[in-house]
Amino acid sequence: MLENHRAGMGWIAVILVLLLSLGQATLAQTRAEDRKILALEDAVEFALKNYPAVRASLERVRAAEAGIGLAQTNYLPRADVVWQTNRATDNNITGLLLPQSIISPISGPVPAATSNRSAWGSAAGLLFSWEPFDFGYRGAKVDAARASRDRANAEASLTRLDVAVATVNAYLTVLAAQRTVLAAEADVERRDTFDKAVRVLVENQLRAGVDASRADAELARARVNLARAKQQEKISRAALADILGLPDTSVEVSEGSLLAPPPDESLPTSPLTRNPIAQAEYARVEEGQAQVHILDRSYYPKFYLQSSVYGRGSGWNPAGNFEGGSAGLGPDRSNWAVGLSVTFPVFDIFSIRSRKAIESANERAEAARYDQTLQDLTGQLRKAQASLEGARNVAENTPQELEAARTTETQVRARYQTGLSTLVDVTDAQSLLVQAETDDALARLAVWQNLAAVAASQGDLQPFLQFLHDKTQGGS
């Protein structure tokens, strides 16, 4: 019995180990699925495919393209078909009736007396109508729809640019936060090592006790700075995940060539008129011009080529007598007609002139906004280029700053060990070193961020992404 009991316990232990291993594997797989590692180019592409605002702008483009098809349907002829059956009395009367939609008309002779008898009546007809020419009115409508489509396309491109720029900035912010955390961790490690060395000296009465207290305070402050840096890293990582549409996923960024020595080359230039901001504003100018053109084509005669086929049936005979039965349920008299109708809105000229004045003013306003847009874009590009030049100058000097700070920290710490410098000198040197480490990493990222800003000012991030891709491939 004891042996059987031990054998059973052994099997239970094996099963527990298997279950534990399976659970750990499942947990590891789940954690791997909750993490996503992206390079900067991949992050931009992912955001452009998944960000809701981009999808919404593309749907607006499709709607505008459908609007062109809708405007083109005005060239098609129109055919209207009608059928009706009724049961009604025949108390017709002679006299004038002004046009209205309440009282139904009655055709036929006027009866001598009023009667409540009713008979069947029926009618069927087809009216074909086509406008053979319109002096350019329908074409102006189509041009206005195309202008709306162009504006929707420009606004979609602007949305894509905004999302791409936001993704790049968020990505670089995460990288900057990571490097700040690494510098803070290195600072904590150095101060912790130094704190222990100071305590040894104090315990051996080679330094005053105040040095130990000061070293503890500096170590605590470094840990606080590390906690704040980690907090900022988590916030920036959450912001990037939100832009990518992955709020429940831990997004990991890849440094790639972003922390390598910054490039000296410049991005290719393109006309500012190709910037989606300028294109969207120019599309609004074209929309205003299209509306003015529609009004120019409005004060013309309307020509309609029409043909009609119709039939009627009545339960009353030509003398006005009731025939009874099913007479009148179907048309028994038919007619056809072909003709040309011409209409002209004589007094619409006053309203058309007023509407044209309004649309012309709107067009001039949009033209002024377009000029202002180009002026603003030029200023933004000049500022971005100046910032890029300054960032490059900073990045050229931060390596020397870092090397000097490392040398200073090492030398001052050695001098403190020999009693030639104070603890304040060491803490100042350590603070200078952590600042230099942070400056060096951020200076390199700043060059890339300003390169992206220059590309964004010109309206296209693709040259920047291609530039980064070429640098990555060249580095690998």
Q: Give the fraction of residues assigned to helices.
A: 55-70%
Oligomer kind: single chain
- Using the CA coordinates, give the radius of gyration: 41 Å
What value does the average pLDDT take? 86
Strand order of the largest sheet: 2-3-5-6
C-alpha geometry: elongated
Task: List SSEs in N-to-C order.
Answer: HEHHEEHHEHEEHHH
CATH topology of the domain at 142-288 and 353-475: Outer membrane efflux proteins (OEP)
Query: How many strand segments?
Result: 6
Which architecture name of the domain at 142-288 and 353-475 does CATH use? Up-down Bundle
| Largest sheet geometry | 4 strands, antiparallel
Percent of residues in β-strands: 5-15%
Description:
The chain is about 65% helix and about 10% strand. The strands form 2 sheets. A 4-stranded antiparallel beta sheet has the order 2-3-5-6, with no helix packed on it. It has a domain at about 140-290 and about 355-475: Outer membrane efflux proteins (OEP) (Up-down Bundle). By secondary structure, it is of the alpha+beta class.
Keywords:
476 residues; elongated; two-stranded parallel sheet; single chain; alpha+beta; four-stranded antiparallel beta sheet
What is the topological layout?
Blueprint: H1 2-33, E1 35-38, H2 40-50, H3 52-72, E2 78-89, E3 118-130, H4 137-203, H5 209-244, E4 250-253, H6 276-296, E5 302-314, E6 333-343, H7 348-417, H8 423-457, H9 462-475
Parallel strand pairs: 1-4
Antiparallel strand pairs: 2-3, 3-5, 5-6
Helix pairs in contact: 2-4, 3-4, 4-5, 4-6, 4-8, 6-7, 7-8
What is this structure, in a nutshell?
By secondary structure, this protein is an alpha+beta fold. It is 64% helix and 12% strand.
